[in-house]
Amino acid sequence: MVNLYRLLGLPDPSKVNQRASKPKKVSVDPGPQADDKFHDLGEDVWSERTNRITPRPSRRVVYLRPDDLHRLPLQGMEQDLMEGDMVLVDLGSLTHMPSQQDVCKRRVQEMGERIGYPVFSLNESDTLLMVAGAMTRVDTVRHKLGMAIWGQLPESEV
Question: Is residue 94 part of a domain?
């Protein structure tokens, strides 16, 4: 007689019961075991795959402080801001030179006015300045910083 289970491609239940199931060896190791049925995302294969899929960041946060001659290296910053970078200017090292600090603040303010981006002061003494780049929102009421294209700040919160 024809075995119906074999004809349909199913396992024969009488033979399945005959097989002795091996008890699973329990380990106290918290890591993945050899017979686990999931992927260990810590393996190099998955890390390499993630690096290939994930796009490289196209924006930067540029931290500027005065050089040894107490000047700000602002060359090329306008183009970087128009590409979406953010510039943080730290004038804290010039606290003993208020006139030079004012000159540096004025240069940052003039750069912001040339490209049409506002300059924000992040502290009471105006020694930490921020110029947010293109496509970046700054909420001046609730002091939230986010990017418009990622929807971090909904239109209702603008």
Answer: yes
